[in-house]
Amino acid sequence: MHSACPGVARCSTRASTTQAEALPPDVLAAVLKAAITSHRDIRVLAALLEREEDERRRLLQNLGYDPDTD
Known about the structure:
Low-confidence stretches: none
Radius of gyration: 20 Å
Number of domains: 2
Number of helices: 2
Mean pLDDT: 84
Number of strands: 0
């Protein structure tokens, strides 16, 4: 088994093709999740989530709702 593709006997991170229909759904999900998370920068994600929360609070306050009292 290849660590980048759990449940797959042969897997290459090089440009190759595989028919998605040939993979079981759980294996396909694991392959996609590994590919996506390997390119995700945790610091950028944390900054994005913080900005999203700040914007949400500001919008709620603009609507007259205090998000800290709920």
